[in-house]
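Bump. Still looking for UDP-N-acetylmuramate--L-alanine ligase C-alpha cells.
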Amino acid sequence: MSAPGLSAALFERGAHVHIVGIGGAGMSAIARVLLGRGVRVSGSDRALSAQTAALEALGARIYEGHAAQHLEAPQAVLISSAIAPENPEVQAALSAGIPVLRRREALPLLLSGTFQIAVAGTHGKTTTTALIAHILRQAGRDPSYIIGGTLLNSGTNAHQGTGDAFVIEADEYDYMFLGLAPRIAVLTNIEHDHPDMFPTFAAVQEAFAQFIGRIPEYDGVLIACADEPNALQLAKARRSSGQPTLTYSIRDAAADWRGQLSGAALTIEGVQDGRTVRATTRLSLYGEHNAQNSLAAVAAACVYGVPLAEAASALPSFRGTARRFEIMGVAKGITVINDYAHHPTAIRATLQAARARFPQTTIWSVWQPHTYSRTRLLLNEFVRAFTEADRVLITDIYGARERPQPDDPTAEQIAALLQRTGKAAQYSGDLARTTALLAESVRPNSAVIIFSAGDAPQIGERLLQRLSH
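Sorry for the wait, here they are.
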C-alpha cells in the first residue's frame, strides 16, 4: 500500500504520522520511537487501553474507534496487520493521496541510518530482543529498540536512543521482517506457525530464507542456533556461500559460541577480536530455552562490540518481559503466572522451566487456545505439550481474527483428548467460569500458569483478587 519515492524525513522531527491500530504491540512501539524523535503522532484503536493511555501521556493524540475525521492531514498513515482495507481512516487517507504503510513498508524509513540488530524465530524472539537491548543499555550504548513485549527493566516496549544500534524483534507475521536489513541477525528456531499466513511449513521456511537474504552479504552477520535443525540448515547454507555466519549452542561443542548451564550458572565461551574469551554469569531466567536466548543475546552484543565480560555481567539484572513467565502475584500460597506461549513447543519449554523453578509445587496450566487455524494444525502437538503440568484447564478458544470452520476441534474435544492420555484435564469455559473453578479448586503450594496470547490474563487478575479477600 506504499507510495513510491518516500524518504526517511517522514519519520523525523516535525513530521506528522497517524497510526491506525495504535494500541497493538507493534504499532505502539513504533509510536514511542516516533514520539522520541519529536514526530507528531496521532492514532486510533477500537478500544482504549493502558498502552494508548501511556502514549497519550507522551504527547500522542488518541481516538477511540475509527472515523475519517480522525485524520488531520498527516504526512503518512501507518496501519497494523489487523486493519482491513475498508477501514474509514485508510479509505480517507487513500482518497487524500496520503501514503498508507504497513510495518514492512515503514521500517526501512524508520530504521534508515541505524545499525540494525534483529531477532527472528518462531519462539524466543521477544526475550532475546529484550536481552540484547538490556545488555546494550547496561553497557552504556543507549540503543533504540522495538520489542514485542514490555522490557520490565525499562517499563516500555520501545525507546529512541542516542546510540547507533537499533535492536528490533523481527516478526515473520505479515512478512514484517522483510522490511529489515540487519547488520546482525539472530535466528532462534523455525517451526510451522501462523497457518493463516503460512499454509505450509515450506512457506515458513521460504519466508525465513528471504529474511536471511536481507542480511548484507559481507558486513552483516547471521547468528543462528545450532541446537535447532531448521535454523542450523539456513546457517550452513549462508556459511557455504562465504557469508559471515556464527552459531551458538548449549549442546554442540563445535558451535562458535558455546554455553554450559549448571543450575542458574551459565558459562559462555566464544571468539572475540580474534581470541578465545570465556565468562561465567548467573541467569535470572529459568529453563534451557532461556539459556539459549541468553547465549544468543551475549553473542550478538559481542559481535556489536561489547566485551564478553561486560555483556555477561548484565544478565543477572535482567528482569524479563511482560507476559513471558511474568509472576502476576502470590496469594494464600498460590503463585499466578502470565505467559504468552501459544505454540506447543513454547508451552512445553515454559512448563519445563516451571518444573525446575517449582519442583515440589502443584502446577496448574490454564490454556486459552489462540486462533482456530493454529489449534487445528497443531492439535496433536498441543495434546503432548502438557507433560509437566499436574492439572490442565482449557478455556474457550480465542478466535482473534478468525471464525471457526465446521471441522475445527472444540475446547471440549481437546480436553477429552488430553484426558485419554491420562492427564487431569477439563474444559473450563469462559474467563469467569475458569476463574471460579480455580478459586474453588487450587490449594496452597500451587502455581497457576495462564498460557494466552489473548485476553485470558484477566483470569489471573480476578483469581488474585478473589484469593486476597
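Residues 8-103 form a domain with the Rossmann fold fold (CATH 3.40.50.720).

Edit: fixed formatting.
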